[in-house]
Amino acid sequence: MRMRKKRHGNERLLALSSLLYPNASETWENPIEVFGNDNPLKLEVGCGKGDFITALSERDTEFNYVALERVSDVAVCAVEKYAKHRGLGALGANGGWQTPDGRLFKNGDAWDMPLELRGNVRFIVGEANDVVTRMPDNSLAGIIANFSDPWSRKCTYEKRRLTHPAYLENYKRVLTTDGLFSFKTDDETLFDYTVEMLPSCGFEIAFLTRDLHASERAANNIITEYERNFMEKGINIKMLEAKPVK
Ligand SMILES: C[S@@+](CC[C@H](N)C(=O)[O-])C[C@H]1O[C@@H](n2cnc3c(N)ncnc32)[C@H](O)[C@@H]1O
């Protein structure tokens, strides 16, 4: 489904640019420095409109998170959702970001938010491997990929899958020894492909279910935007977790 272009999308992202990961297109020396604490870092690739990262970051507060989305009009929804959920304001009736104390950031103005308001998530508009390539070895406690595009129809697109070896090898490098790769999908072909690729890219599958909502993980599961749609259609959700073998 193609999204209609967001009005003032870039301006809206700029207003909340304090919630974007700074200098993400450079080499990351110390990835957690920007959070002002020592909590381990997890990455969500393809975060979509941000339901999952907003809920996860509120539930598992002992981690920092980077949420990565390559389409900026989708990323702006995620950033605004997170900000609104944290009580940082809302879109103003006539555009701009309106803070709870009545300030309005629009026309390219950026809110320089105090660190304590920013919480434990920073967003990046970018391509997954471009960003992961810049991260140091052994720097992530987890990588999460939920309902990534299956690219099933034409096998020439296989390399775009977020579980293609070109991605998995990079994930392995940046995950710590105890780190986990977590993956959910509705798509049988993509799931089978991922199950096949993981061991050949140096991962060991630690958990696997082909019916997440009937499994012991259901109670702890955070439902994503796409997951809700697939559930309504009665499609079983597949999920796995894999550890890098180091
Ligand atoms: C099918 S949506 C799923 C969104 C969300 N994770 C969910 O479960 O509702 C996949 C998202 O991943 C993003 N995406 C796909 N390939 C990507 C890549 N290589 N790097 C960053 N984001 C990507 C897409 O733009 C899209 O927003």
Structural commentary:
The protein has 246 residues and is of the alpha/beta class. The protein is globular and about 50 Å long. The model has no long low-confidence stretch (mean pLDDT 95). Helix content is 28%, strand content 22%. It has two domains: 1-20 and 38-126, no CATH class; 145-246, Rossmann fold (3-Layer(aba) Sandwich), CATH 3.40.50. Strands 6-2-1-7-8-10-9 form a seven-stranded mixed sheet, sandwiched between helices. Strands 3-4-5 form a three-stranded antiparallel sheet, covered by helices on one side. Strand 1 (41-45), helix 2 and strand 2 (64-69) form a beta-alpha-beta unit. It contains eight helices and ten strands. Bound molecules: S-adenosylmethionine (SAM). S-adenosylmethionine is lined by residues 45-48, 68-71, 74, 127-128, 146-149, 162, 224-227.
Q: How many structurally independent domains?
A: 2
Number of helices: 8
What ranges have pLDDT less than 50 throughout 5 or more consecutive residues? none
Beta content: 15-25%
Category from helices, strands and their pairing? alpha/beta
List SSEs in N-to-C order.
Answer: HEHEHEEEHEHEHEHEHE
Q: What bound compounds does this protein have?
A: S-adenosylmethionine
Global Rg = 18 Å
Main pleated-sheet profile: 7 strands, mixed
Helix content: 25-40%
The global form is globular
- The count of DSSP E runs of length 2 or more, i.e. the number of strands, is 10
User: Gap between N and C termini, in Å?
Assistant: 39 Å
Give the overall average pLDDT: 95
Q: Order of strands across the widest beta sheet?
A: 6-2-1-7-8-10-9
